[in-house]
Design goal:
Radius of gyration: 17 Å
Strand order of the largest sheet: 1-2
Largest sheet: 2 strands, parallel
Number of domains: 1
Helix content: 10-25%
Order of helices and strands: HEHHE
Strand content: under 5%
Number of helices: 3
Distance between the termini: 55 Å
Shape: elongated
Length: 85
């Protein structure tokens, strides 16, 4: 095996899923939506804030998909009304 092969690295996009519920419709790409989604996923399922080293603190993207179209009856992770300040 050549030195070049040994140093080769591979990059992947890894996505995580959270089934969330909001009190308003979200528009993908809007600054307000970015902030709202980050705020939601930076909380634990019990509503308390996650720690500063939590992987979601480094989140850089998202996709909004209608829950019912893709995941059937799976339970939501967190609703905005559960967030504790």
């Amino acid at each position: 095996m050549s030195a070049e092969d040994e140093k080769k690295s591979y990059r992947y996009l890894v996505t995580l899923r959270w089934y969330i519920e909001t009190d308003e419709e979200l528009v993908a790409g809007a600054d307000e939506t970015d902030k709202k989604i980050l705020d939601i996923v930076r909380h634990r399922s019990n509503g308390s804030a996650s720690c500063s080293t939590c992987p979601t603190r480094n989140q850089q993207g998202y996709a909004i998909l209608p829950h019912h179209d893709f995941m059937g009856n799976k339970p939501i992770y967190l609703a905005t009304k559960q967030i504790k300040d």
